[in-house]
Amino acid sequence: MTTSAPDSIRPFHLDIPQSELDDLWDRLDRTRWPDELPGVGWAYGVPLGYLKELTRYWRHEYDWRAAEAGLNTWPQFTTTIDGANIHFAHVRSPEPDATPLLMTHGWPGSIVEFARVVGPLTDPRAHGGDPSEAFHLVLPSLPGFGLSGPTRETGWEFRRVAAAFTELMRRLGYERYGVQGGDWGAAVSREIGRTRPDLVIGVHLNLLPNAAAAHKPGADELDALPPQERERTLASWERAQEWSRDRQGYADIQSTRPQTLAYGLTDSPVGQLAWIVEKFKEWTDSRERPEDAVDRDQMLTNVMLYWLTGTAGSSARIYYERAHADYWGTPPEPSTAPTALADFARENFIPLRHVADRTNTIVQWTEYDRGGHFAAMEQPDLLVGDVRRFFRTVGGAPVA
């Protein structure tokens, strides 16, 4: 057997055995459904009627092979960094002077999130844009997530991920590049910019960690703020309270007992579906169901990457590792990297500029009246435009 060099990059082609799909369909056919209280909607979790209909569609109409073929249009690779398998897509622009951009997803997302932004970002000429605003995209799967999973040892919190992705960009030959992300991808992207400002052109985020109201604002604090920021601070605190009361439970479980959770989600596809789809309803700019905000097939393809790789538990461990890291609970360390925030209206937390400026070098701050947590899926045109504008401001860099 030939052993690959430690820093080798290996081509990857997604090809799920039919036996795994047959097993999934069999499990869906044999789902054991729970009861449900009448008239409670989404208040207690995913409604039974909605999930039954979505499961029927998943079983009988959703086409994994079409989704698989779509993902395989992106050149994909794996490499081993710090003992972990890292899967990534590397989609180079036809424009030779495009800016390298590392885009990182979060939980419960995957590189599937970026399907609608890859074309406009890599080939703006073909999408009515300026070819000078093209990007070479590197789209890694987080360690422990999907095709990068599972991880085989403890300690994979976001700072370690940031170091691994910095090494990934070095292996690809990129000496200067931009970073972009939301959710965990925002934490990773900010950390890369904070620790390696010499490498990073700019940090573009659609979620800014540690920028929401952390306590109930007092009268003196509010009086010191401009009227608009005062109102936003109150709204930020109210949304943070709502989160703590009604939406924090998943993170508490994943931060404390991810292994126990993994048994149910790895054995039951409907359990895995419900665990993820609930977030696509609660965290998006949706009304009655997630499909008001995101494409149903794209959402199911995202779920499939968790199911087919059995990484429900492995992906959850990033919450545990952060909560048990020695830096947990300490103030964020300042970042000098030029940073942009695209704040979408239904993001889980409302960021505050006066808080963000304490530890970030904000050069672009844009508030949108629509969209939510999964910006690349919900509002791809707005996100693409915001990314282009930011890197036009901070300046691109030729590929190494």
- Distance from first to last alpha carbon: 34 Å
Instruction: State the helical fraction.
Output: 40-55%
Q: Output the helix-strand order.
A: EHHHEEEHEHEHEHHHHHHHEHEHH
Number of E-type strands:
9
Note the beta-strand portion: 15-25%
- State the low-pLDDT regions, or none: none
What's the arrangement of strands in the largest beta sheet? 1-2-3-5-4-6-7-8-9
Largest sheet: 9 strands, mixed
**Cα radius of gyration in angstroms:** 21 Å
What integer is the average pLDDT? Answer: 96
List the helices and strands and how they pair.
Elements: E1 9-12, H1 18-29, H2 48-60, H3 64-71, E2 76-81, E3 84-91, E4 99-104, H4 118-122, E5 135-140, H5 158-171, E6 177-181, H6 184-195, E7 200-205, H7 219-223, H8 227-246, H9 249-256, H10 258-267, H11 269-282, H12 296-309, H13 312-323, E8 338-346, H14 353-359, E9 361-372, H15 375-378, H16 380-394
Helix pairs in contact: 5-6, 9-13, 10-11, 10-13, 11-12
Written description of the protein model:
With 400 residues, the protein is α/β, with parallel strands linked by helices. The protein has 16 helices and nine strands. It has a nine-stranded mixed β-sheet with strand order 1-2-3-5-4-6-7-8-9, sandwiched between helices. It is globular.
Name a few traits of the molecule.
400 residues, single chain
Task: Describe the structure in brief.
With about 400 residues, the chain is α/β, with parallel strands linked by helices. The protein contains 16 helices and nine strands. It has a nine-stranded mixed sheet, sandwiched between helices.
